[in-house]
Structures are given as structure tokens and as C-alpha cells.
Design a protein that fits this description.
By secondary structure, the protein is mainly alpha-helical. It has 2 domains: 80 residues; 220 residues, MetI-like (MetI-like fold, Orthogonal Bundle), CATH 1.10.3720. The protein has 15 helices and no strands. The protein is flat, with a radius of gyration of 24 Å. The protein starts with 6 loop residues before the first helix and ends with a helix.
């Protein structure tokens, strides 16, 4: 039984315990629990002949996990009694639905255009490749308000794309498509970079073998290359979806309405204060966490299936 317990297992057990002790105000037990977790990691590390570096890394891991979990746990602890109130608020529920659906639409569009670009970036060398890579990464470093203004110039009522599309009945300002393009702009780097890394790990010899057997480039891509990067596609889609659903700056400039969850939470906070905004924020976190757990579980099962094959 001892051989099955690792320092990581100890971490996963002790961090929630330390969080609970924190909220109960049991400071002596909190210090004792932290010290005990360090001893447990050291003890099981010695049993498995793990060096001191691993021990130090595990301790730093405890601190990092506490840093991430503590604010979230504080939020849930304060907002939990009022979650039912948030669920009964039509505006809160609608804002979360807008965020989920817009993020999903942005992710799907990102996959449609991002997968081909990722494949080209992974397989071809060309003079402007470094420039293209810089353009792909640019949305991650551009201030969100700047991104929103740039999108407004293009997709606004008099924008180069917004005006002709508006005449065709597709409006972006203060409309759902505006939220989608804002989310797509900030999330596309996660899709392209993640999937490109997957294609780079696929041995080109596999594609050459398929084409030597009579398959053309399209069939080789669909039957050989694409299936081998499905985990990268799933991971990139999850990261892009997460980035999209959290976007505020660009969305609030181009499409304040219909309100996405971050915009609605901000409005409630500025109008009614921290206490009123906490339940909606906690509800959004619960929804996102549930989706993450489900997707990660599917990804893990996918990995096991690949190994069994």
C-alpha cells in the first residue's frame, strides 16, 4: 500500500484539508497540518528513493496550489448561501448562457480556421513564417481594450467589414456576433499553437507512407495526421474556450449587450458592490469547473484508449 502513495497524492489530500482548517479558524491545526504534509512528503519520498529536490518542489507545489485555491475557496464560502439567489436571477442565468454559447461559437470557428493554419505552420518553412507566428501570438499581449477598439474599427457600423455585413443583416455592435469575434480574437493563439505542436510531433514519414500507398494529401491529412492530434485539438479547444469565456475588455467595447457573464458581473459589482456580485461569480466558476472536469475526464479516457490500441 505504501508504494502506491506518492508525494503528489499527499499534496492532493492535504491541500483541501489545509483550506478547510483555514476557514474554521483552527490556526494551530493549520500549522500542524502544513508541517505534517511536509513530513509525509519527505517520508514517502524517502521510501521511494526520491531526492531532496523533489521534496522542495513538492513543498513549493503546496504553496502554489494554496495560492490558487484560497481566493476561490473564499469566494465560494462567502457566496454559497446566495447561490440560489443567483440561479433565480434571469439576467445572471442569461449572461452565463450568452458567455457559454458565444465561447463555444468562437472555439468552433477557431478550430475551422485554426487547424489548417496549424498544419501549414507545422509542415512548411517560408520566409515570413516568423512574422506569421508573431501575428498569431499578438492577441495574447495586446491590451484587451486595444483589441476591442481595433475590432470596433473593423466590425463597427462604419467599419470595413461591419458596414457591408450590417447591410446584409449581420450586426456586430451590441450584438451576439460582436461577442463572438471578440472572443475569437483573444482565443485563437491557444488553438493554433497547441494544435501546431501536435502536428509537429507527428512523424512526416507516416504521411509519406500513406501517400506512397495511393492516398492524396487531403486523405492523408484526414485519416493519418488529424486523428493523431485529437488530444491536442481537444486541449487547444478547452484552453481557447476558457480564454474566450473570461474575456471582458474587448467584449465590453464592441458588444456591451447582450451582456456576457463577465460584463454582467462587472455591472453588478459597480452598481451594488462586492456582496451582490459574489453569487454570480461563484455560479460562473461552478459551471466552468464542471465543464473542465468533464472535458479532462474525457481527455484522460481518450489517452487510455490510445495506449490500449
Amino acid at each position: 500500500m505504501r508504494d502506491e502513495i506518492t508525494p503528489i497524492t499527499v499534496l492532493l489530500f492535504f491541500v483541501p484539508v489545509l483550506i478547510v482548517l483555514y476557514f474554521l479558524g483552527l490556526w494551530y491545526l493549520l500549522v500542524l497540518g502544513a508541517f505534517s504534509s511536509i513530513l509525509m512528503i519527505y517520508f514517502f519520498g524517502e521510501l521511494r528513493d526520491i531526492d531532496k529536490t523533489y521534496l522542495v518542489f513538492s513543498i513549493l507545489g503546496i504553496l502554489l496550489l494554496i495560492f490558487i485555491l484560497l481566493p476561490l475557496a473564499e469566494l465560494f464560502n462567502a457566496a454559497l448561501p446566495d447561490i440560489e439567489q443567483a440561479l433565480s436571477d434571469p439576467k445572471a442565468v442569461n449572461s452565463i448562457f450568452v458567455s457559454l454559447s458565444a465561447a463555444l461559437a468562437a472555439t468552433l470557428l477557431g478550430l475551422v480556421f485554426g487547424i489548417p493554419l496549424s498544419y501549414v505552420m507545422a509542415r512548411k518553412q517560408f520566409p515570413a513564417k516568423a512574422f506569421v507566428e508573431g501575428v498569431i501570438d499578438l492577441p495574447m499581449v495586446v491590451p484587451h481594450t486595444v483589441a476591442g477598439i481595433a475590432l470596433l474599427v473593423v466590425f463597427g457600423r462604419n467599419g470595413s467589414l461591419g458596414k457591408p455585413l450590417g447591410e446584409a443583416g449581420i450586426r456586430f455592435m451590441d450584438a451576439f456576433p460582436g461577442i463572438v469575434v471578440a472572443m475569437l480574437f483573444v482565443s485563437i493563439p491557444f488553438i493554433v499553437n497547441q494544435i501546431r505542436e501536435g502536428f509537429e510531433d507527428v512523424d512526416p514519414k507516416l504521411e509519406k507512407v500513406a501517400m506512397s500507398l495511393g492516398a492524396d494529401r487531403k486523405k492523408t491529412f484526414l485519416t493519418v495526421s488529424l486523428p493523431l492530434v485529437k488530444r491536442n485539438i481537444l486541449s487547444g479547444a478547452v484552453m481557447a474556450w476558457a480564454r474566450a469565456i473570461s474575456e471582458f475588455g474587448a467584449v465590453v467595447i464592441i458588444a456591451y449587450y447582450p451582456q456576457s457573464a463577465p460584463v454582467y458581473i462587472y455591472e453588478v459589482y459597480t452598481s451594488y458592490g462586492l456582496q451582490a456580485s459574489r453569487p454570480v461569480a461563484a455560479l460562473l466558476l461552478i459551471v466552468c469547473l464542471t465543464i473542465f472536469v468533464v472535458v479532462r475526464t474525457l481527455s484522460r479516457r481518450m489517452s487510455i484508449y490510445d495506449k490500449d490500441r
